[in-house]
């Protein structure tokens, strides 16, 4: 409805009282006139009327501008503490709940160790090789070349004969040790002489098997696999020597940098997961629901919050004949049923879609932003708003 504010009756009565009390002629608003009818002589006070201010009075309620906020843990562990309860007000950054950080701390320590090892390996590879290391690598390459040449050439006649003679000598030693054992043990197997002879016999047997195996190898032709294996040993030794003399290649440097980046990323992820074990309030809110308890493993929404810093007053009975009188940005006085002192605000918007019909008149919704207040206000509180009309 539209109301017009006129000169209050109290103001008119005050003017009459002033005339009855013969107010001084020096009063700026007083003008000397003939005696007023019914009051005798004296000055007359001229009162200037304040221009009328039109308002639209509507009912409504407080609602949230944003939807209910759902907060959940982003990592898994047992809940060790829940610090809030439903209905409690929290500030942005307040701790809502915490998880057991033991496993998460271990993950951070492991990731830090992996990064340290990577850094150490990169540092070691960047240090120039010593003369001793290069000499050792060169000796290993020479030995690999010699082995390769021997493998390709196969056993010589001299090597074959030497192997045969070694096998024959081992056989004779074996027979001799067998005879010695039999003599030493003829009087009993528990004597010291028997035991020593038995040990010598065993050693002679092992030597015989080895000598025969070596002799058989000298008789075998050279195989492709043995040549390939010998060549692989040469290439490995050659590559190691080249790496030592040339230092790390551009490719090796890129690979090392990739390893460092991956180790750093793993540490950052582990650190972030540890921080996620503490769940913080994202706003100045009221706790609507608590869905976790100490000792549980949370899944889904842990807390539901309402952002009380984003409340608005929404009209419920704004009729169509008054819509044209409301302008965005217009000042508003709001009187909630919960408080005797009014709140203030401004019109934020008028929704174009009708919200219903009342007494054959379409209803529309005006959204009113609230000015900051220290009053405790909640969604759903009702009251009346006086909107200054254009």
Q: What proportion of the residues is helical, as a percent range?
A: 40-55%
Low-confidence stretches are 1-43
Mean pLDDT: 85
User: What is the number of beta strands?
Assistant: 19
How much strand?
Answer: 15-25%
Number of helices: 8
Structurally, the number of domains stands at 5
The rough form would be described as elongated
State the major sheet.
6 strands, antiparallel, barrel
| Content-based structural category | alpha+beta
Query: SSE string, helix = H, strand = E?
Result: EHEEEEEEEHHHHHHEEEEEHEEEEEE
- Tell me the strand order in the biggest sheet: 4-12-18-15-14-19
Q: Give the N-terminus to C-terminus distance in angstroms.
A: 14 Å
- What value does the Rg take, in angstroms? 51 Å
């Amino acid at each position: 409805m539209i109301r017009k504010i006129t000169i209050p009756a109290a103001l008119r009565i005050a003017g009459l009282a002033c005339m009855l009390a013969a107010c001084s002629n020096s009063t700026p608003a007083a003008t000397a006139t003939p005696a007023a009818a019914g009051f005798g002589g004296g000055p007359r006070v001229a009162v200037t009327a304040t221009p009328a201010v039109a308002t639209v009075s509507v009912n409504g309620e407080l609602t949230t501008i944003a939807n209910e906020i759902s907060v959940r843990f982003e990592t898994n562990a047992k809940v060790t503490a829940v610090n809030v309860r439903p209905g409690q007000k929290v500030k942005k950054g307040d701790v809502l709940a915490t998880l057991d950080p033991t496993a998460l701390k271990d993950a951070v320590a492991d990731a830090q160790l992996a990064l340290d090892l990577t850094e150490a390996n990169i540092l070691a590879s960047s240090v120039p090789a010593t003369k001793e290391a290069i000499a050792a690598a060169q000796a290993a390459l020479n030995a690999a070349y010699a082995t390769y040449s021997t493998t390709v050439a196969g056993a010589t006649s001299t090597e074959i004969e030497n192997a045969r003679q070694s096998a024959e000598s081992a056989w004779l030693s074996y027979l001799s040790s067998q005879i010695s054992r039999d003599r030493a043990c003829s009087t009993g197997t528990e004597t010291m002489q028997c035991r020593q002879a038995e040990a010598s016999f065993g050693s002679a047997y092992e030597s015989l098997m080895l000598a025969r195996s070596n002799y058989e190898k000298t008789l075998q032709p050279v195989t492709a696999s043995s040549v390939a294996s010998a060549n692989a040993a040469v290439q490995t030794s050659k590559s190691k020597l080249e790496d030592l003399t040339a230092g790390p290649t551009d490719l090796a440097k890129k690979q090392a940098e990739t390893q460092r980046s991956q180790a750093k990323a793993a540490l950052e992820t582990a650190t972030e997961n540890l921080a996620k074990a503490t769940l913080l309030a994202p706003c100045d809110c009221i706790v609507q629901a608590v869905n976790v308890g100490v000792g549980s493993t949370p899944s889904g929404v842990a807390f539901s919050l309402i952002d009380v810093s984003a409340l608005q007053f929404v009209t419920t009975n704004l009729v169509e004949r008054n819509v044209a009188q409301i302008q965005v940005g217009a000042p508003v006085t709001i009187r909630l049923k919960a408080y005797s002192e009014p709140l203030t605000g401004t019109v934020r918007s008028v929704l174009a879609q009708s919200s219903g019909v009342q007494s054959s008149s379409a209803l529309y919704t005006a959204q009113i932003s609230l000015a900051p207040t220290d009053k405790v206000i909640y969604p759903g509180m009702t009251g009346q708003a006086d909107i200054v009309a254009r």
